Amino acid sequence: MKKKISTRSAFFNLRALLAFTLCFGGVALGLFAHFSPLTNHSSLSSTTDASQRARYMPVPGQRPEAEAEDLGRLEQYWNDRLTYPTGRFNPKWLRAAAAQHARLARGVPAGMPAIRNSLSPLALTGTAFIGLGPQPERMTGCSGCFDYTTTEGRVNSMAVDPTTTVNGSIVAYLGSVGGGVWKTTNCCSNSTSWSVVTDDPLISTTSIDNVTIDPNDHNTVYAGTGDLNFGSFSMGSQGVLKSTDAGATWTVLGADVFGIAFPTPAGQFPQYNAVGKVRVDPNSSNKVAAGAKTGLYLSYDGGVNWTGPCSTNGFGTQRQDITGLELTDMGGGVTRILAAVGVRGFATTVQFDLGNNGANGLYTATMGSSGCPSFTSIASNANGFVYGTAVSGSPYSTGANMNAGSGVMYASPTTGDQLGRIDIAVAPSNPNVIYAQVQSIAGNTAGNCGGAPGCQLGAWASTNGGTSWSFMAGSQGPSLGDCGFDYPQNWYDQGLAVDPNNPDRLFVDTYDVWFATRTGTTWNDITCGYSNGGPLPVHVDQHALAFLPGSSSILLIGNDGGAHGTTNADVTNSNTDPTWFNMDTGLNTIEFYSGDVSGDFANSASPQANGGAQDNGSSSVTFAGTPTGPVQWQLGVGGDGFYARMDPVGTGTSLRFWQGNNSGSLHRCVSNCTSQNAPWSGRVSGGWSGD
Predict the structure, then answer these.
(1) CATH class of the domain comprising 154-582
(2) How much is the pLDDT for 342?
(3) Helices 92-101 & 14-30, crossing angle to 10 degrees?
């Protein structure tokens, strides 16, 4: 009933080192956004009321002007480091440097080790790093936080092998933005464990935006690299990865197509490209489609060569970000291409042209045998792609025009293309049933939107392949309720999955997962990530939804806390939630903004580390002797982690730990800081004095 309330290995060469440096620094750049403030109090508790706990959400905070300054500082820092002295940067330089480095001899300098413990696994080596974790990060016992028990880093995409149908031996893949592609062979329960399959020196990125399995060959897997939602210097693309042996080995494809700098005029911050969607033609494994920030690309030889960008519209001056992509077998050997152009529709300091949304809309074509096909717009005011019933808190009247694919940028709720980011899904049991989820550019004032852009505009459904559309009742952002609410980050959190056996049942991502039916009037929040109490079953900020093909029961979800799943999705309705379980075992994917270690780390009897992570607060650990692999860390302060430091002098027997989180808050601990329920002070500000 409804209830509301592997150790990772790597290779030490220039490619891996540079990729790590870029990814680590990129997190500090791209995952900036904006944050809600933590209530100022001197002592924090995980039992604090939900309204007073720091949220794990990139949304406008109390002082957006200060956050813009912080973002500018971070961007400028990494911009200067990577572009000096020319002011330019091109990702292909990394690949060229790695190719040169591969020809160099390598080894460890001769002589006695400088460290006292010559058997330390942290001794000098030319071949390996030692992963330290968190594996996992324990949230229980944190201060001022939402407790999701344990957590890992952001999962952008998940895919399930359709040939493995017995629960407990199901094969699945996930793409993490900070840790590459991971695979499990014992899905789906709380005993599910993952192993990384892309720790390869030939792969110069760990950022994965999309994972897909060839519908004609379950051993062939593709992964799009980069992070289209954020872009900028953060987590750029180095191409499309392909495995033909179920993830055992990988080939990097299209590096010169997708791994080039995003076109940016002089005077603007550099941006990476990103591959947000990859799909394989169900009628031919040789035909592959990839959606990037620069548009749609097609390959007719399994990804070796690419044609594009293929224009889906005639608005060349507008952004062409492909945020939704589906290839569907329509029978008779015909494959339909559905593409959504869905840039977020409002600029940021780093990405100056995100407001160029005039091409945002839905487009279709028939897959050919070569070249770029001719596309047709299938979303317009004339065929029903208009707003639904007016609701309080929305700027739109009943039946208001959305002006999809009009070529005119958003200017106001009555002028220009009203669509922000768009995600689409096709019902597996009926290819004529299509769903589209759309982010709002105009500000909603209800829920937790506060008039900011980026909330939910709504969802539309078509039962005739896009010939006509109907607005889904209850999908208006201000109508979202239950244990959840509307929030301005649909540009970051979106996704759709249709019940494989019932085209009218839909699961939808925002910061939580929602359930709806095509003809229903109520959206049910089925994860309740910001409810009071705890521990809570599912981390917030949803990105991935994947059914076991053919099953209405087994559904996997990916979010900023890793992977979760359910085996009774089929019982979900407007009043009943499924039962969720955590599936983070084995993952080592926390995205750190910054961190610190204690002195003489390699030789200390109890070395310590402290790090601030994206969407998973700041955590710390005390190792029992020299670390030999990843271990569990303890979350100290909730929210987004940002900076974490350790005072090398401390207070005598204990080091002094510092952890930062939302809106520049700073917290201090002076004893037992890596333990559960450590005594963290709250938001240090004002006058400073000694201990």
Answers:
(1) mainly beta
(2) 98
(3) 160
Residue 627, both tokens = 């670390």
Which has the minimum average pLDDT: 64-73, 250-259, 674-683? 64-73
- Report the range out of 74-78, 268-272, 539-543 with the highest average pLDDT: 539-543
> Hey, where are the domains in the chain?
154-582, 592-684
Q: For residue 365, give the DSSP letter.
A: E
- The CB density around residue 49, as the number of other CB atoms within 10 Å, is 9
Indicate the range of 161-175, 301-315, 523-537 predicted with least confidence: 523-537
Structure tokens at 299: 């390959």
- Sheet of 581-582, strand order: 542-547, 555-559, 562-566, 581-582
What are 453's two structure tokens? 């852009």
Tokens of 367: 């897959």
Would you state the torsion angle of the CA atoms of residues 209, 435, 336, 292, taken in this order, to the nearest 10 degrees? -30
Q: Which two three-digit tokens encode residue 668?
A: 């201090």
> Rounded CA gap, 649 and 654, in Å?
9
DSSP state of 36: P
Look at residues 212, 155, 190 and name the one whose alpha carbon lies nearest to residue 566.
190
More confident: 363 or 124: 363
For the chain, how long is the longest CA-to-CA vector? 78
pLDDT of residue 76: 65
Phi and psi at residue 365, in whole multiples of 5°? Answer: -155, 170
The CB density around residue 690, as the number of other CB atoms within 10 Å, is 4
Report d(CA 127, CA 201) in Å as an integer: 10
State both tokens at 286. 């040789």
pLDDT at 674 over 80: yes
User: Rounded to an integer, what distance in angstroms lies between the CA atom of residue 16 and that of residue 127?
Assistant: 11
